[in-house]
Amino acid sequence: MKAASHPVQRPRDAKLLVIDEAGRLHFAPRSRLVEFLRPGDLVIANDAATLPASLHGTHVRSGMPIEVRLAGRRSLRVHDVRDFTAIVLGAGDHRTRTEDRPAPPMLCAGDTLALGPLRATVRRTLGHPRLIALRFHGGADSIWAGIAQHGKPIQYAHIADSLALWDVWTSVAALPVAFEPPSAGFVLDWDLLHALRERDIGFATLTHAAGISSTGDAALDARLPFDEPYYIPQSTAQAIESTRRRGGRIVAVGTTVTRALEHAAARNGGTPRAGHGVANQRIGATTRLRVVNAMLSGTHEAGSSHHELLRAFVPEAVLLHADAALAAHGYLTHEFGDSVLIRDMRTSLLAASVASPGIGGPMAEVDSLESVP
Amino acid sequence: MTHHALKHLRVAITGGTSGLGLALVHALHAAGANVAFVARDAQRVASTAARLLGTHGIVGDVSRKDETHRIALQINAALGGLDVLINNASTLGPTPLRPLADTDCEDLETALATNLLGPFRLSKALLGALAASAREGRGAHIVNIISDAAVTPYAHWGAYGASKAALLHLSRIWNEELREHGITVTAFDPGDMDTPLHAAALPDADPATLTRPSDAAREIIALLAASPHDRAGVSA
User: Fold this and answer.
1) A238 to chain B: which residues are within 8 Å by CB?
2) Quick one: B4-234 is in which CATH superfamily?
3) Other Cβ atoms closer than 10 A to A71
4) CB < 8 Å to A77, chain B
5) Which value does ipTM take for this structure?
6) CA distance linking residue A352 with residue A343, whole number of Å
7) Minimal CB count within 10 Å: which of A109, A184, B139, B141?
8) What is the CATH number of the domain that holds A62?
9) Which CATH number is A26's domain given?
10) Do A174 and B129 touch (CB under 8 A)?
């Protein structure tokens, strides 16, 4: 698949591929998205704003230039902003492919990093010479100000222009806790939210610290996704409950929403409860989805953790078929690319009530999921 | 007046180190709200934040497009979300005030950048947080500070009056559009106040005839403490 190389969140000609409960493919302009949803459904998006998580500076002991990419945090709590997990790169910038960047100097516990107005101390390396726990100096307000002033969004080699914060914030962006954009949400605008309301389709949000998608290092990439803290508001938990009670479907916008909801559901007997959590599970072919019935996401390349997650929704053969179709139909991939709406086919197959599923067909009984051994 | 509704309310105020903005920071802080304020001068921001412990001072210029998201990020981060945005920062345009025909194009642009585009951009960048607040039942609210110059065509108040008239209409349209998302948008005219801005416009005015900023702040606070239903009634 070709990478979308322009940072336009909602290009007029954006495309949508729908993989329905029967594994059939439907091709449509993305502007027709609401037609593939039903009254009573609940759309849930990640309202995390994207941090300017790339901080250039100096490794003070060696005097060498470095780039620090903030990559993880243990909670979303406002004042818990001193400690981050971070990946450190050597000299250069995003115009060099991450894979080709020089290694940073040897990082040791106690080393000081000077990052614009910010100072940080390396607390320890985390099983890899470039993955560190760091602690910023100073109070919460000055750390936030330093990140806001000095940081840049993590850039992509496949996008020619430098990304600014407004390129990577969705229309519903709120708490700045995502390390890379929850880009499935780029499809959202206020007109779409109005259209959902008009069709009696619910909309809710959760906040999930979407982590980095790639580090340029095979050993580190194998550890992705890192643990990601999330927060589910009371109103969202209630909306999920009432949607399920009325037989509506839960439509997650993006892999991050799926990961958070499924983590929260697994922790609480299948029903996500409101509150804070840290998603640490992997979702893949063997995962039994407990709450998400469909997911709207970008198109992802085989082998990525995002792609692996799709296998929880449909069998491998359907995915291979869909991947071939996406390529054949010229769908664009990556953050600013086209979209896929994938329905949970595996649950549907298990639910005896599904006679002839399809667009507008009967939905899988969510409750039947719970009784599957 | 009950301040119960204001306790822990997350409020951001632009132009928070002088005049009405400063009075709002004081009053909301005293009422138990969680307050972030924005102003251009780093020293004044620091000294205001130091005087009012627990408030969050943010250095920024709302008239500059490239500062919008940085400011929004710091507001959301400091408060953990947002319930109320008060777009108060204003510029008069050129002083002494002059006829519109003698106003430089650049001066009109500056007035529009601060008084219209600034509130538009910052509100837009914070809509996600405000809508989240509304879904949580916290009653999201944007208050845009206007002036009677937005309605009455006073000679010599062209740059300011035109920018505030545009802000008034923007508030009305946005209130219509955002109602379904639970966000109220109000344009509020505090009247002629004894502030540095007023002194720059009319240096000879007798301060005794002017509203004190703290009194205007009290009115705005009453507006915030009112139910969303009551607020809609006073929406401009």
Assistant:
1) none
2) NAD(P)-binding Rossmann-like Domain (3.40.50.720)
3) 22
4) 80
5) 0.93
6) 16
7) A109
8) 2.40.10.240
9) 3.40.1780.10
10) yes
